[in-house]
Structures are given as structure tokens and as C-alpha cells.
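hey so i finally got around to running the thing on that chain from the lab meeting. sorry it took forever, my laptop kept dying and i had to restart like 3 times. anyway pasting the input first so we r on the same page abt which one it is
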Amino acid sequence: MGEGRPAEAADGDFSVPDPAAMRVVTWLLTVGVRHGDIPALIEAYAHHLREAGCPIERMTLHVRLLHPQIRAVTYIWRVDRDGIEQINREHGIELTPDYRQSPISAIIDGGVEGIHVPLERTAPPYPYPVLHDLWDQGFRDYTAMALVGANGRRNAVTFATRHPGGFSAADLGMLYGALPALSVLLEARALRLLATTLLNTYVGPAAGQRILDGDIRRGSGMTLSAVLWYCDLRGFTPLADRLEIGALIALLNGYFEIMGGAVQRRGGEVLKFVGDALLAIFPIGAGNGPDELARQCAEALAAADEAMAGMTSLNAQRAAWGQPLLGAGIALHVGDVLYGNIGAPDRLDFTVIGPAVNLVTRLEGLTRALDRPLLTSAAFAAACPEGGLRSLGLHAVKGLQDPVEVFGRD
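ok and heres what got predicted. didnt touch it at all, straight out
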């Protein structure tokens, strides 16, 4: 690599495979491959490089993600610190001066294959601001290299040392020559991370883990005891008729952030969004008995209180802007559901079905008729005696022959 400027390859002629690099490649493909996640692989790799004679004291990896909130993840290893530091980079960082003036941007976005800046032999100012920080921390050499996946997606890895004289040509040859093998291992782990992220985002963590574990056959499932939560936004149809699409999506996102956020903070799992409705569960562990049932009911009720407080705050903001207020109904029930894969042969949904699901959705429908933001079933109220719930009498429920007893708060 060139001194203080982007370069196509590391210093030296690598048309002939470097023996030291090949030994590192062998380690990656025989020992490194056993490390299942990115942090474990990075830490083991860094220590192996040091044992092989390369004086690295800092290594970073920058991996781009497909994630609704995170653009990329940075992993940092340092010889003088335990473990791997992980930093999630939010969307928008690519527009900041710090990123645009970084070697990472040059490699990931600028198409540069590698950068080598021997700091102690390069007169300041250095080509990237971060190098001044590294110099102040005692580092004397720095190199960054591209990791290019099979689909052309670019990530970056960097190495730095405090060693007097910096990296030798042999050191750089070792690092550069092992890049293809390192890239293959990291890509496999990044794809696993990507799959986990997408599944967690679109079907939820528990369902996502079951899918990754191989539970993907249509019709497979299990009976699960759970507290069920169902909420719906009132007056959505007229709002959808008069709001432009961007404003409507923003409204729904704000509403679901309040409802889904309350559920997740209390340990529940959001299963699906149906238009302006949300279905969630608070699973009850098998064999944990009535104490676990009472605890999960209390968590679900606390989540409902948080959600209603959030809606009150949102409506105060909407009123200040002269916007119409939003109403929502929340229903809570407890029962057994079938949790599994349902759908067409090539289009499945991991969800819950059963009479308990039908009942909780019908209870939510009664929140409009009874003009109450929260209703629960008798089974939920019995399991949550400290919830301040009282009977509101028997009410006819669509689809059921007999009326059901409904509970709410004063």
C-alpha cells in the first residue's frame, strides 16, 4: 500500500502467495471457522496474528446491515482491553463529516481497496482526522483493507500498531494475503446476523429463533399458554381517507411505537400488525404455575397502562398542532393458543391461532361499545387480582353463542 494515500494492495509484490499468509489462511479455515459469531472470530484472529508475529494492537471491523434503525456495526479489538467493543451506527451516519472524512468511507463507499499510512514516517496533517487521534494514543502505523463479499457488498477491516517502525512488508503481506479467507468467514457470520436481524424485525425474536433453528415446515407448531394482547386504533378508516400516504404512515408508526414499545419493554412479543391493529403475546413458561401466570398478567396490564399514558401524551402533542385526537382500544385475555407455521406452501406466517385469539379480538371490539380504552376477560381478571379490575357484566360477543363477562377499570 502507498504511504499516506489509498492504494490497490499492500506494500510488496503479492503475485506469489505469501507463506505466512497461507499459514494464517489455514488457521482461519481449520480453527477460526469454529468461532460462530463475529466478536469471537475477531478476538481469536487478532490473538493468532500476534502469535504469528504480526504486532497488531488494534483491529476494527465495519459491517453494513439491513436493519430499520442500524446502518452498520463496528467491532473494536484492542490488545490492552478485554473483549470486543460493539458500536451500532444509526442510519444517517453516512452523511456526517466524521464518517465522510474517514478511511472507512473511502473503502466502503469510495471503492478504495486499501489504505496504508505509516504514521511515524508521514508528516502531518494525515489524510484522515481519525489518524491524528490514533497518533495521540501512541499508534505508529495504520492500515485499512476492503472485505468484498460474493455479492460485491463491501465491508472494511483495519489494523494499527504502536510497534516502533510500524508494520513490516511481511506483516502487511500476511494481513493482505489472508483477506479472502477472512472475508469468507465474516460473510457467513454477517449473513447469519443479517438473517437474524430480518427475522427479529419482521416476525419477532422468539419466532425468528425458531425459524433459524429449522422450524420451517408448514403445519408445525406447539400449544402455548400465553397472555394475549390485542389493540386497535379507532377512527382509522376516515383518517386513511383524508390523510396523504406519508402522513398516514407516520401516524401509524407513532401509534405502533407506543403500543409495541410498551409490550416489548415488559417482556412481551409483538406477533403481527394487521392494518391498524397489533397482536402480541406474553408467553407463560410451562410448569411455572400460577405465579408465572400472575406475573405475566401484571406485566401485560402494566404495558397497557404505559401504552395508554403514551397515547395521552401523543394526543396532547396533536392537540397543540390542531390535529384530531386518536383513540385506541386494548383487550387482554389469557389462554392456550397454537403457535406455529400456517399458510400456503410457499408463503408462511408464524403466528398464533385458536379460540383465545378470537376472543381477545372480540373483546377489543367491545371497547368502542362500552367506551373504555381497556377491557379484559374474566380469566385475565382472575389471574390478576391486584389489577384493580371489576366486572362490567355479561356482554354478547360476535361469533359466540353465550355472552361473556367483561372486566375493566373505574
